[in-house]
Amino acid sequence: MASAETAAEHERILREIESTDTNCIGPTLRSVYDGQEHGLFMDKLEGRIRNHDREIEKMCNHHFQGFVDSITELLKVRGEAQKLKCQVTETNQKLQNDGKEVQCRLQQRNIATTIDKLTHCLPGTNISPSICAIISDPAVFSPRYYPALRTLEQLEESCLPQAGSYRFCGIMSENIPRLRTHIRDVSMSDLKDFLESIRKHSDKIGETAMKQCCSSVQVMCLSLTHIILQIPGAQDLVDFSPVYRCLHIYTVLGARDTFENYYRKQRRKQARLVLQPHSNMHETLEGYRRYFNQIVGFFVVEDHILHTTQGLVNRAYVEELWELALSKTIAALRTHSVFAFICFLFLTEMDIIHPLSSPLSLQGYGFPVNQLFDMLLEMRDQYGEILLKKWNQSFRQILDQDNYSPIPVASPEEYQRIAGQFPFQDPELDKMPFPKKLPFSEFVPKVYSQLKEFIYACLKYSEDLHLSSTEIDDMIRKSTNLLLTRTLSHCLQYAIKKKNVGLAELVQIIINTTHLEQSCHYLEEFISNITNVPPDTINATKLYGTSTFKDARHAAEEEIYTNLNQKIDQFLQLADYDWTAAQGGAQASDYLSDLIAFLCSTFAVFTHLPGKVAQTACMSACKHLSTSLLQLLLEGDVRQVSMGALQQFNVDVKECERFARAGPVPGFQGDTLLLAFIDLRQLLDLFTQWDWSTYLADYGRPTCKYLRVNPQTALTLLEKMKDTSRKNNMFAQFRKNERDKQKLIDTVVKQLRNLIATNQA
């Protein structure tokens, strides 16, 4: 029973394998492997495979002969198809050859007919492309509008009648009036663009024209047309062809009067806009410059139109606009000139008004400028103030950018370059080999050059004011004195008083001002040379440069003294004495050693200073140091001073005396510098030697050993030591020596108080 069921199950599995898709055969095979009779199933599977192989072999044997017959027939058909293809190709070639002759005769007949028709239409067709091109692309063919009108006339009168009654001829005849109107409108559009362009670029036109006019006297003889052609880039700014083209077109169309009226009306509107000052014109130099450049540019264009067209504008029309411009310009100047001081407008009147009134400017084109001459004279004082403010900025910039170091010179060429900027002579320095250093810094030749530039600026403003040489010389000298005593003096004071200025910088400023002071007579000669007025002329104004530089040098000297004292105070702030020390040290305090080193290095920089300045600075520093040390000893915060602390203080003072005795600055006679510490020395000797009997006995005598010791100072210090003695000897008060010392202190204190009371009485 079990074998029959197994055989049936195997049969079922074989049928599933034969009928099931390969992808789904997995479960079936799993059931085989899960079964108990796996070997029997494999035998049945091999038997079933052999049966199928026999069936396949039978089927192939049955159909093989039919397959062979089919292949044989297909090979026969291929040969016949190749023959048919060759026959079709041969037949097509014969047909093509037979049809060529017929096709050529037809083409020849069509060509002959076309040539005959085109011959009649050729004049019109030769003209119409240019017309079409102009209409389709006006930007490219705009210069040919005037020839296009002539072409339309030729097309209408001769070409189209000859062409015949074709439809395109009728269309062209109907469009000719519209084309004329279109050309007129487009040319007017170009004119409007031109007017807008010259309105935008009028300031550039004016600026270029004034530069050209001021460059040479010969320009006065040139017409405006020559200027426009000679100035580089002027044609890029102004292209007058739209005016000429539109004028010709309107003339041909019989509407010249309409065009003239339109042009003048539009230019009058633009003139009113150009002459109207902007509300913020006075706030910047460019505001004034642009305003006057626009006016000049406007009249440059009108003068050009006047000379290159016949009747578009006339002289009366231009002069009418010029009178309006004069009145508006002068009114604008008088309204806004007061703001020039606030706005720091450098050379506003010189750069803008002056070219307007110059014969090399608009006067060269026939425009009267007498009213502007008068205005220039009125504004001369304001111009001087503007110059001073501009040079104030230049001096500040030079002083801020200077490195305050001697100028290194590496070659004779470099030395000559600097000598050309500043009149410097030093035979000893000339003998030294290169490289070498000039004693002054860059600010000396730069300031000297700026002084000369200022003089040139004053001269340039007065060139065409019809002033005499003496008047020009006087004006320049007075302006230069203002520059020296007010502007440059303030700038030097600013450089001296500004924060963080160092001693080296102050020393260099003193050296610089000394050389500038020595150069003042060269400035006198320079002014005389450019004005042709001798310096010894009666009533000639003298320059105040010497006093200006002396004052600056004295201010720098005072600042050196102040800075030295401040540096000393900074070191003294580092002092850290143990006022209750039992015994002093053998070496000077660290802060004092650093201070002495600083003073030595500082006074080494003073080698180029005048001897008196260096000596005064050294004496001032030593006195301040002595006074500050005494104050440090006596200040209220120091309530107790022991003898050990006083000994350490004495060592520090001896270090100061050693510094003074070494002569940090040459020129002192004997021990003059030691006198700065004499007060401290006598006070310390009195206390360290405890020589009260001598002090009290000789007090008030000229030969007193402790003549510089004030009783009040001695009393203050003694009371500090008295308090220390009491504190330290609280438990030793029964010792006889201590008791005797305390009694002595009390006795001296009492006697000092009596001396003070006697002096006050």
UniProtKB/TrEMBL annotation:
| Exocyst complex subunit EXOC6/Sec15 C-terminal domain residues | 371-720
**GO terms for biological process?**
Golgi to plasma membrane transport; intracellular protein transport; vesicle tethering involved in exocytosis
Query: GO cellular component terms?
Result: exocyst; plasma membrane
Q: Which Gene3D superfamilies match?
A: Dsl1p vesicle tethering complex, Tip20p subunit, domain D, Exocyst complex subunit Sec15 C-terminal domain, N-terminal subdomain
Q: Which domain of life is it from?
A: Eukaryota
Q: Which UniProt keywords apply?
A: Exocytosis, Transport
Occurrences of domain Exocyst complex component EXOC6/Sec15 N-terminal (ranges):
44-210
Q: Which InterPro entries match?
A: EXOC6/Sec15 (IPR007225), EXOC6/Sec15_C (IPR046361), EXOC6/Sec15_C_dom1 (IPR042045), EXOC6_Sec15_N (IPR048359), EXOC6PINT-1/Sec15/Tip20_C_dom2 (IPR042044)
Keyword Glycosyltransferase appears in the UniProt entry: no
- Annotated function: Component of the exocyst complex involved in the docking of exocytic vesicles with fusion sites on the plasma membrane.
Please give the family membership noted in the entry: Belongs to the SEC15 family.
The entry's protein name is: Exocyst complex component
Annotated organism of origin: Cyprinus carpio (Common carp)
